[in-house]
Amino acid sequence: MSGAEKIQVKVTEITPLNELVTRFRFERIDGGHLPTFSGGAHTVVEMQDGGITRLNPYSLMSSPFDQSSYTISVRRDDQGRGGSLFMHQQVKLGDEMTISYPVNLFSLDLRARKHLFLAGGIGITPFLAQIKQLELLHGHWELHYACRNEGLASYADQLTDRHPNETHLYYDDQDQVIDLKNLLRGQPLGTHVYVCGPKGMIDWVRNTASADGWPEDCVHYEEFLAPQPGKPFEVRLAKSDKVIHVGENESLLEAIEREGVDAPYLCRGGACGQCETVVLDHDGNFVHRDHWLTDEEKAAGKKIMPCVSRFEGKALVLDR
Amino acid sequence: MSKFEFPKSIASRPVWGTLEPRQGEHHLMIADAEGAEAVLDIATPDLMAKTHLIYIPKGTDYVERLQALNPAQFYEGPSYEAALQRIRRVLEDAHMGLQVYLTGTEGMMGQAMNEVMTVGLPHTAIQTEHRGSAARRMQCVHCKGITEDVEVDPFVCSHCGLNLFVRDHYSRRLAAYQGVRVDAEDHGNLPEPKGIYE
Ligand code: FES
């Protein structure tokens, strides 16, 4: 079985925070302790949605040292493929669910002298756990959190209450924008910057930091890509000797799994590299959407990340 | 010629690079002895106008040529130890975006790299280039004493007097190679000392 090890949990709290975001609390069914994790880790939540099994990653936002429960916050995406809608509309208190062991692709670099957090919208969640971790370690941090408006600024009150000096808020509807260039320039040597939010924000931070001479290893980002719908296509899985059909609303990885073929994965969002699959033959164009393969690898057409990438054309043969 | 081709070795042995000028508003260059030549190689008026250059001559005569590059700040230190306070203060006051260049002997680069890493910059962000003497900074694994600028193998520990074999095993934390007693089994039975790379 691929992916991280599984844990059986029950939903013990559902808390709507605002019109888009709801928080869920999970506890183990057997009453035991959950594993500790490090700030920035996510869990993959399994959803049995009709005939479809959805596996969506969500950042853990509770204290990494609290083994009694995990919490996640889910932003409803009405345009999405349905994972967040399932969480919002189908999941009820007391439901039993399967989640994965925590996996961290966005960990703190503890060699840093200071941690600078830049969050956009629901991108705040990994930082909530990281802040709890750093508070216990007496780490030096600062948060700049940009939201559409005050009403959607999940956890902003709590953050300003507990950490008035470290928390800086920006509201789009009040035309408040992070003064990124000066913010980055003013950071003491040994600062690491972490950004989680929409793609545009991540690119903005990475480009600004790099233009200002920040070393790549001091710039950390996390963006889970949700698989995008696309034109249906056929794939031949050479090792399994199967021809499968990838539907409009499922990812290549999901289609492989639906056919009972075990394929590796961790993040399901194009970030971890675990699902990398060798392309044996193709006639058509790849729609590469991951953050993993280099531009050269993408152009070479010898590898694909089935969790988020698709294919358009006549034939695709994978070594799976 | 101040460049030296190090033979292939174990993974713990540091690998030094070649300096290249980088983008940035502030640059810190720390050089000793023939490291001056690497600085002269990459210097442009524009780069040097944004550079704080800390230089330890170790008996060489590059100072005038370095001063002629008109660095924004120039400090000449009689020894690495003497320059250390200055290096620490510059790093304390520096901001992200600072580009760090180290060049010269392995001993100086290793120690300066430690200082830069202590303030939280990853080692991958620090540029280095070896120039000049290939002598090593050695730690005696028995008494833990450091002997600087070791050129021959075996050598005598300057602290406890044991005869030590020069290993390629390197400690980034100590910025030193490890020296292990060469005549532990049969005291006084010593191989003829020769140059480390001979
Ligand atoms: S599962 Fe992580 S990149 Fe595909």
TrEMBL record, chain A:
Cofactor(s) this protein requires: FMN
Gene responsible for this protein: pht2
EC code: 1.14.12.7
Signal peptide: none
Organism from which the protein derives: Falsiruegeria mediterranea M17
GO molecular function, one term: metal ion binding
Protein name: Phthalate 4,5-dioxygenase oxygenase reductase subunit
Top-rank lineage group of the source organism: Bacteria
Pfam families: DmmA-like_N, Fer2
FAD-binding FR-type domain sequence ranges: 4-109
CDD domains listed in its UniProt record: fer2, PDR_like
InterPro entries: 2Fe-2S_ferredoxin-like_sf, 2Fe-2S_ferredoxin-type, 2Fe2S_fd_BS, Beta-grasp_dom_sf, DmmA-like_N, FAD-bd_FR_type, FNR_nucleotide-bd, MRET
Residues of the 2Fe-2S ferredoxin-type domain: 233-320
UniProt keywords, alphabetically: 2Fe-2S, Dioxygenase, Flavoprotein, FMN, Iron, Iron-sulfur, Metal-binding, Oxidoreductase
UniProtKB/TrEMBL annotation, chain B:
Domain Dimethylamine monooxygenase subunit DmmA-like N-terminal: 9-126
Pfam families for this protein: DmmA-like_C (PF22289), DmmA-like_N (PF22290)
GO molecular function per UniProt: 2 iron, 2 sulfur cluster binding; metal ion binding; oxidoreductase activity
InterPro entries linked: DmmA-like_C (IPR048037), DmmA-like_N (IPR054582)
Boundaries of every Dimethylamine monooxygenase subunit DmmA-like C-terminal domain copy: 137-180
Domain of life of the native organism: Bacteria
Keyword Iron-sulfur assigned: yes
Record keywords, A-Z: 2Fe-2S, Flavoprotein, Iron, Iron-sulfur, Metal-binding, Oxidoreductase
NCBIfam families (alphabetical): mono_DmmA_fam
Protein name: Uncharacterized protein
Organism of provenance: Falsiruegeria mediterranea M17
